[in-house]
Amino acid sequence: MPNTSAETKPATTIDTTAETKPTMITDATDETKPTMIIEDQPLSGQNKIVPKQKRKTQVRDVNKPKKAPCAFILWGRDNRVNVAKDLGNLTVPEMGRELGRHWLALDKATKLLYEQKAAAAIEQYKLALAPYTPPPGPQATGAAPGAFLGTAPAGKMSKKERRESRDPAAPKRALSSFMLWCQDERETVKADLIKAGDESPFIGTLGKELGLRWKNSVSSETKQKYEEKAAEAKASYAAQLASYTPSKEFLQKKEAAVALKKSLEQAEKKQKDPLAPKGPRSAYYLWSVANKDKVKEELGGNVVGPDLLRELSKRWGELDTEAKAAFEEQSRLEKQKYLAAMVENKLKNKSAP
Questions:
Q1: Axis crossing angle, helix 203-216 with helix 92-104, rounded to the nearest 10
Q2: Distance CA 255, CA 332 (A)
Q3: pTM
């Protein structure tokens, strides 16, 4: 006899008596919605939906020495221009994949050379890290946990600071006609890219394809329709903005953020040592100083600053490794002297009353 109860069981019923793993639920129509986790509750017979926890933001300090790059990154810096010449303009993800393929096919001798450079960079990083003193923690500065200490240049705000400076109750800006069209066509374009062979299109690739289709394939009638929608959204945003009044809590939070930023900038200015040694010059800078007048004469002598810098950068990228070697060695020696001077200056400051 067949089990009629199993045949009539609805497809949406969840059997809570069996041991099941938490299920990941994503909204394919909206990439901005967070992933949700369904936790099975066998005892109660109900499922609980729990938002996925966000990764905690770490505090960053611009004065902390940067970590040493690995051998692949060093090789990529030297060969990125050559790969771009061979393949044309590539997006950042495409360039990364292409460099990775070249690195895997690289001979052992060249890899060993860059591995030695990476080892030397690690030693320099350790020397630079020795005199480094971390800034006071959030409790000492009055900053909130996860606050960014000196991440953005003076007068500018980081993305996190701009995001946190907005009132969540304020009306959102109206989308442009192109963005409204992208909302309707993103999934279609994504499916076309997958059919064409790109199993997991990157955001940059998807955005580039959307831009090309909007420019070349969308008819003027369709664009007109979305421009009318954008005009309506803009008028609605203006009406909402006219009636919007920031809350007292938001204004207090904004004033506290401005005061905290000023105090951090003042603390950063006080921490700068006027007697500290100047930083070392890069190999490109040393080459530019040595060849600036020559390049200027070849260009006619009347070239302006930006054009001269572009030409110098272009010629530096076209130089072979042998021509760069002398300037890289000079830059390396300057770095060693700078690190030694930094250690000596740090010891002097510690011994000073």
A1: 130
A2: 46
A3: 0.35
How many Å apart are CA 105 and CA 108, to the nearest integer?
Answer: 9
159, amino acid identity: K
CA-CA distance, 10 to 126, in Å (whole number)?
63
Q: Burial of 262 by CB count in 10 Å (0-12 exposed, 13-18 middle, 19+ buried)?
A: exposed
What is the pLDDT confidence band of residue 279, given thresholds at 50, 70 and 90?
Answer: confident
- The architecture that CATH gives domain 276-353 is Orthogonal Bundle (1.10)
Q: What is the separation of C-alpha 336 from the centre of its chain, rounded to a whole number of angstroms?
A: 30
Strand 23-25, strand 46-51: pairing:
unpaired
Cβ atoms of 165 and 257 within 8 Å: the answer is yes
Residues of the chain with CATH 1.10.30.10: 276-353
pLDDT-derived band at 229, boundaries 50, 70, 90: very high
Across residues 305-331, what is the average pLDDT?
88
Least Cα distance to 158 among 257, 253, 64 occurs for 257
The 10s digit of each residue's pLDDT in 8-53 is 444 444 444 444 444 444 444 444 444 444 444 444 444 444 455 5
Does 203 have pLDDT greater than 90? no
Is residue 237 a contact partner of residue 179, using CB atoms and an 8 Å limit? no
3-state secondary structure the chain: CCCHHHHCCCCCCCCCCCCCCCEEECCCCCCCCCCEEEEEECCCCEEEEEECCCCCCCCCECCCCCCCCCHHHHHHHHHHHHHHHHHCCCCHHHHHHHHHHHHHCCCHHHHHHHHHHHHHHHHHHHHHHCCCCCCCCHHHHCCCCCCCECCCCCCCCCHHHHHHCCCCCCCCCCCCHHHHHHHHHHHHHHHHHHHCCCCCCCHHHHHHHHHHHHHHCCCHHHHHHHHHHHHHHHHHHHHHHHCCCCCHHHHHHHHHHHHHHHHHHHHHHHHCCCCCCCCCCCHHHHHHHHHHHHHHHHCCCCCCHHHHHHHHHHHHHHCCHHHHHHHHHHHHHHHHHHHHHHHHHHHHHHHCC
Provide the pLDDT for residue 137.
Answer: 52
